[in-house]
Amino acid sequence: MKIIQLAFLCTLLSVTSYAQRTKYNFNSDWKVFIGDTTASGADFNDAGWKKVTLPYAWNEKEAFRKDIKDLSTGIAWYRKTFTLPASAAGQKVFLEFEGIRQAGDFYVNGQHIGIHENGVTAFGFDITGLVKPGAENTVAVRVDNSWDYREKATNQKFQWEDKNFNANYGGINKNVYLHVTGRVYQTLPLNSHLHTIGTYIYATDFNVKGQSATVHAESEVKNETAAPQAVSLEVTLTDINNKPVSNFSSKPQTIAPGQAVVLAAAAPVQKLNFWSWGYGYLYNVTTTLKINNKPVDALVTRTGFRKTEFKDGMVYLNDRVIMVHGYAQRTSNEWPSVGLSVPAWLSDYSNGLMVESNGNLVRWMHITPWKQDIESCDRVGLMQAMPAGDAEADVNGTRWEQRKAVMRDAMIYNRNNPSIIFYECGNESISEIHMGEMKAIRDQYDSHGGRAIGSREMLNSKVAEYGGEMLYTNKSAHIPMWAMEYSRDEGSRKYWDDYTPPYHKDGEGPDHNGQRASVYNRNMESHAVENVKRWYEFWRERPGTGSRVSSGGVNIVFSDTNTHHRGEENYRRSGEVDAFRIKKENFFAHQVMWNGWVVPEQEGLHIVGHWNYKPGVKKPVYVISTADKVELKVNGKSQGFGEKSDGFLFTFPAVAWEAGTVSAVGFDSKGKQVISGEKKTTGAPVALKLTNIPSPHGFTADGHDLALLQVEVIDAAGNRVPDALNTIKFSVEGPAEWIGGMAMGPDNYTLTREFPVEGGVNRALIRAATTAGKVTVKATTDGLTSATLTLHSKPFLTKGGLSTSLPGVDLPVSLVRGPAPLTPSYVPTRKALRIKGAIAGANADSAFMSYDDNELSDWVNDGKLETAWVEYELERKGTIHEITLKLNNFKSRSYPLRITVDGTEVYNGKTPLTLGYCTLSCKPTKGSRVRIQLAAISKDQGGSQLVEVTGKKLDDGVARDDSKAKGTLSIIEAEIYEPATK
Prior knowledge:
The protein is 10% helix and 37% strand. The protein is mainly beta.
């Protein structure tokens, strides 16, 4: 009896002594030493080391100063002394690292606790038995970011250690947390080392129109007491106004000592606000673990709910078709002189600009992004495609197992983030077996998350749930296909056009790996025009244009990046914004074209460029607009209507400049004015203007926060002078560190206090100290009135190296676009006539391959002109008005074709060069048999060839090259259309 009573008392004490879980910000009060030493011991003297606040890459200052391949590598040590509260006695203590680069050995109070080597994912350690509550403790980390680091257990490099795309910002470059919990607790979603899966929140039974769904909460619970525990899980939902929405519980369950079980609870919830594009509506889901009806562990998960489907070649979000348009962004998402390790508000600023440009998806490239960027996309309402880790090819053996491990860890860690819509298994196609293995991981850990899993390419996969090429247009009637990195051209923000100093004409620049700069190296004007042309290739095949459609594509990249490059600069300049997120003309081009789920749902107009030129200049003016026609005026005098091309582009070929105003007016098809815009000539430069781009919570003295400052050259009326190139000198006084700006020139002017504006504007960063106070920044330049800006940093409270103020948790969500509309996102423009059979002049047994919805197969004749025909039999008669074809070598070869319907000629002409599909307008003719034949020996067109930055030619069709095969007709896909019925 006494033994039973004692056991009961121990159990009761173990329960009642549990303090509520506490999550600490563990970023403060670290020290760094660059080089190798023996610094694992608790008594090691690190007094002379540099004091830093995490996240902090020890080579951060090299970001954009050095070529990616020259970023410094080697060993760096990080150390931190902290005091664990005395209340933690008897509790569980965990360390959580969001990630490091590349590999680290970890020590607590001198004892080695483990290693982590993949350089990508989050991981954690149980340090319960090593730390001393109420006393000082030491954490030491030895980090090795060598490019050729090899996994110790296998002696194998990780595939993603790549000097092309994976910028090497070394050290502890992401957030670190300390968790204190009771001994019956909800686990952390950290598979590496802890082997736990945490909490999983999801919804089923969606009724989007009725704003309801069944919300599920599953939480892995572990019992580390000496006795069985009867536990239950209570779930509470609160909205963005902290208003309770729902409360429900699981059934009680007994957990044996040392056992981990998953507790589950679910309930229908009404009046839900569904997360959507540009509508980052999030809920706090509190899962409270109870023993004897008393709370012992409460965990808050910030998440959102949305319905997705992937079918009929389309992506559905909240029952509405959404065409993918956004950016393929390097996962580093870096900034000059700090790399990726920026405060959370700056991630929101950057990712929010993607939404402001009307992008709806970011495809992070090659490796999983850090949690801060993932959570940021939740807040701003930006869909994500989340990769695991890879380079440019499928692999086998150890390297494939490494890729699977990263995908598993990333899914577990990020499965509660609603903005993740796609899981990407590779930057090139992978085998069906490998695709199946990745899909099995998804099904094990995230079977209810509403996320498609696939890979780049996968054009004929039976396992992948989405796919798509890199540069070309793909279409499908089953899984969605979207282009995963199109429009690789580059253009610096410094260069407006051919007519503005410093006069970088379109296409100028040195060769790169044998590739002429004229193929890719542009100024802002021609870059914007080219991006309109590229997007139109996908939009032309959008949902609503038939049974086989394109689901869109993402432009590479959003911001200029310190990764692969091919110009005079050591960084990539393909961004719609520059490295400091100053908008280029491309930004506004996309803002016009992408303002809708499939088709633009609001009228838009942008006049490309500026209106400050010299007398005598006569130049083309480009207007990007959703209107049916656009009229241009100079100082009120009409320049006529522009020539419309590529869906959104209006060209006015030779407009004489006059000081004053250039304006454009857009009209609909009935002649009604629907949109207008203008640009004015500014006055002469007279002054500088210095402003702070504000954080939602001010400037915080935590040693990590950054202030983003903008300097402009302005005229007497306060307008930015768009052709100003003045060199600006900066000074800073007060508790802040000058980080600096960036411009084209020596070392890209990084870290300096003197650099030029480009296009009349530039930016710089300063970092807060750990002491609060007044910070004064002054900007001066010869001949102009100077500008001064004062900031006041606010204190950041820490105790014993710990803080309960967590990065990003209190940042506001963006609801700018509102919830997903309940109306359809498109009106069908044409209807496909199904092909039921075909005959051909040669190889008739493979004629079906020309309409099999498989872009890796084709029908081709035997090279003779007389056999270069195929005839399709339709399932019924229809009025054929358009035929869409994907022909081999579509980028470089034009085919002279003759098309008949039931023997009547409806088309005779040459196909245009495209990025995939061409649509041929036919004389509307009713019939059921369509013959397509090569009308003459085709000539080599010498079309432009797209290449990798390595110089490698890219494919533009099936594997066989027909570019020189004069009598050959090769059809990859044929589609036959009649007008949509009204």
